[in-house]
Design brief:
304 residues, alpha/beta, Arc Repressor Mutant, subunit A, D-Maltodextrin-Binding Protein, domain 2, two-stranded antiparallel ribbon, 12 strands, 41% helix, HTH-type_LysR_regulators, DNA-binding, LysR_HTH_N, DNA binding, DNA-binding transcription factor activity
Length: 304
């Protein structure tokens, strides 16, 4: 539950937290004081105040370097998150004052879901909130989840998997089945539906990051398939390039192929067994500003 604004907060300032985070990064008092443009006594005093408020020692200091205690290492990510949220909020307030606008909404996206959103969603938001600034952040699924946890984005559209933190609020939108992309001259290219076992012995290309590789690996292991994942790539064009060159069969979710219009490539739905990821709207548990809540509700209704 959110604290009421008049309730007493711990006697820590954002500047003190900034001192601790910077010291944890540089691991040296002199370098940290220089970076922050303060004296070493002022830095030491701020650190003692933090330790007094929190009730424990955060760093071990020697003549040569600084190391974090177990408590300091545990507290560091929380301090980083507070600073990140505060900076984002301050930036939003500055934009409102400087531009006289309604603020900014930050939406995280895994790249493949753009076909669900454009051009309808930006047009709908622009009509409903004409002075709203909209930021779309293209991210891997893992990066999107981390950005939600750190408060770097307001909400996002990604995929559900076992790594999803329990505190996130998740609203499933649709199933996204996995497909194979093959060269048109491939003997399997004429099939609209392709059993996984027919890919045994073929060189496979998949994305190297995110949950797609984990989903494929879990299916292969559970069904005791022998697939040769020879290529792992970061970008969709590299994946398609391997297929165009007849070097591999690509495996990926169908949403990636929505706008695929390459005459050299063919798409086949994978089956026996079917594999799909669940695309979902996600947000953190914290309350959002009223305008951002309205944007979220509009997005949720538009994607149903």
């Amino acid at each position: 539950m959110m604290n009421e604004p008049w309730q007493r907060l711990p006697a820590l300032s954002l500047k003190q937290l900034q001192y601790f985070v910077t010291l944890a990064q540089l691991r040296h008092f002199t370098d940290t004081a220089s970076r922050l443009a303060i004296s070493q006594p002022a830095l030491s005093s701020a650190l003692r105040q933090i330790e007094t408020v929190l009730g424990g020692k955060l760093v071990n200091r020697t003549a040569a370097t600084v190391t974090l205690t177990e408590l300091g290492a545990a507290i560091l990510p929380h301090a980083q998150r507070i600073l990140s949220v505060a900076q984002a909020a301050f930036s939003d307030m500055q934009q409102i004052v400087e531009a006289g606008g309604d603020g900014t909404v930050r939406i995280g996206l895994v790249p493949s879901v753009s076909s669900l959103l454009f051009p309808l969603l930006p047009q709908t938001l622009a009509e409903a909130f004409p002075r709203l600034r909209i930021e779309f952040h293209d991210q891997t699924n893992d990066a999107l989840i981390q950005a939600l946890q750190r408060g770097e984005i307001d909400f996002g559209i990604g995929a559900i998997d076992s790594s999803l933190p329990a505190e996130l609020l998740v609203y499933p939108l649709r199933e996204d089945p996995f497909v194979a992309v093959l060269h048109r001259d491939d003997p399997l290219a004429a099939q609209a539906h392709l059993p996984w076992k027919q890919l045994v012995g073929r060189d496979i290309a998949v994305f190297s990051k995110g949950n797609i590789q984990r989903l494929v690996a879990a299916l292969v292991e559970s069904h005791r398939l022998t697939l040769t994942t020879r290529y792992q790539v970061d970008y969709i064009e590299t994946l398609y390039g391997l297929v165009r060159s007849r070097l591999a069969v690509a495996i990926l979710p169908a949403l990636y192929t929505t706008h695929l219009q390459d005459p050299a490539l063919r798409v086949a739905h994978l089956q026996q067994p079917a594999l799909a990821r669940t695309v979902a709207l996600m947000r953190g548990p914290q309350a959002l500003p009223p305008l951002i809540e309205d944007c979220f509700s509009l997005l949720q209704a538009a994607l149903r």
